[in-house]
Amino acid sequence: MTIYNFSAGPAVLPKEVLQQAQAEMLDWHGSGMSVMEMSHRGKEFMGIAAEAEADLRELMGIPANYKVLFLQGGASQQFAMIPMNLLRGKASADYLNTGEWSKKAISEAKKFGAVNVVATSADKNFSYVPEFAAWKCDPEAAYLHFTPNETIGGVEFSWLPDAGSVPLVADMSSCILSRPIDVSKYGLIYAGAQKNIGPAGLTIVIVRDDLVGNVVAGTPTMLDYKTHADNDSMYNTPPTYGIYIAGMVFKMLKRNGGIAAMEQTNIAKANLLYAAIDASAGFYNCPVATDNRSRMNIPFTLKDAALDGAFVKQAEARGLLQLKGHRSVGGMRASIYNAMPLAGVQALVEFMNEFAKQNG
Ligand SMILES: *Cc1c(COP(=O)(O)O)cnc(C)c1O
Question: Which of 86, 254, 319, 340 is 20 to 30 Å apart from 134, CA to CA?
Fold first, then answer.
């Protein structure tokens, strides 16, 4: 039976990457060592890390005046590192509140300065993106933070806020590499790797270099971007195996037409699943506003929640795993990141149609 894993994270990885890792597990390229056993300062691993960075720069078109950092601590640690590094003496920062991850970023930032919430979608249970005209942005803000894809609510931006000269900061944990973006429009982009890049334990930060090097007093060395920027992310031991796997994912994307090609597949997958939900005559329902529906995380409820258990169980029996929704939304959630093939979504839709017919 073919298994399709719809986990929100840690999530499915490309099979060909896992197979390559398996083949190289005990002996990387004739080195006689596993990548896990290599010194991060040896020429083999330095090469792996440099190539991973170069490939990511090429894929995303990262300009030369941006640093690429391979860190640890997850996106959650960035919730603190961002205000510590980017407040730069300013009194407050702007945050958009579109759901669970925005809320966590906001509450952490409040430990370091004032937070101005420019807009929120709390009035409709975080099911949409507030229109930009209604945002109350502060032109003096240290930066403007938003979450382009809310992984739990399934709410995704299809447009870019215009923050003027205020640096734009984006938590791209669950949408990085899923569609082309213009990096030069951002001050800082960050993402935990475990959704769309590689294994948990690696966090990627892409930061414009003028924003590095002006931390609040008392910032620990490890939480200063400059520490990592000045040392090519090798100030201490980086998450070596995660960097290695991520590098293979970047190479695979390059072989397959890059991010633009990936976006086309992602559109096809999302359209297929939303069409099945919308054609189910109310048996399935997605709570998210049509224009803000995520291509990566698709929450949906069944018209009778008493059927949830049977849905999950029968789906599992067909190899469709980890579909149970987040407790704050209920129902189901299908996460269909880059590594989920179209065939996986087709199998899910086929099952959903059968299940609706039998239980409708
Ligand atoms: C998963 C996720 C996080 C948390 O990531 P960790 O790496 O577990 O800290 C933060 N923001 C978004 C948008 C996420 O999807």
Answer: 86
pLDDT in tens, 225-271: 999 999 999 999 999 999 999 999 999 999 999 999 999 999 999 99
Does residue 265 share a domain with residue 246? no
Same domain for 213 and 336, yes or no, is: no
SS3 206: strand
192 CB under 6 A from ligand 1?
yes
Q: Which atom of ligand 1 is nearest to the CA of 193?
A: 7
Judge whether 3 lies within some domain: no
Q: Whose CA is nearest to atom 12 of ligand 1?
A: 173
Burial of 199 (0-12, 13-18, 19+ CB in 10 A): middle
Please list the active-site residues: 101, 171, 195
Look up the CATH number of the domain holding residue 213.
3.40.640.10
- Ligand 1 centroid to Cα of residue 10, in Å, is 10
Answer whether 98 contacts ligand 1 (Cβ < 6 A): no
Q: Across 86-187, where does the E strand assignment appear? A: 92-97, 114-120, 144-146, 149-150, 155-156, 168-171
Whole-model pTM: value is: 0.98
